[in-house]
Amino acid sequence: MFDNIFQSIINKYINKKNKLFYYFYFSIFKFLTKSQFILPFENYKFYASFDRKSLSRWMLKNLRPWDKKNVEKVIYFIKKYNGSFIDCGCNFGAYSIPIAKEFKHQNVYAFDASKKAIHNLKRNIDLNEVKNINYFNIGIGDKNTKMYFNDEVNNLKNDGSFRFTQNNNNEKINIYKLDDIFINEKISLKENIIIKLDLEGFDFLALKGLSETIQKSKVIIFIEISKMLLENSENFSNEFDFFIKNNRLNIYDLDLKSKDVNEIIMSLNTAEIKKETIGDYIISNHKLL
Question: Which of 8, 47, 92, 259 has the fewest Cβ atoms within 10 Å of its own Cβ atom?
Answer without folding.
Answer: 8
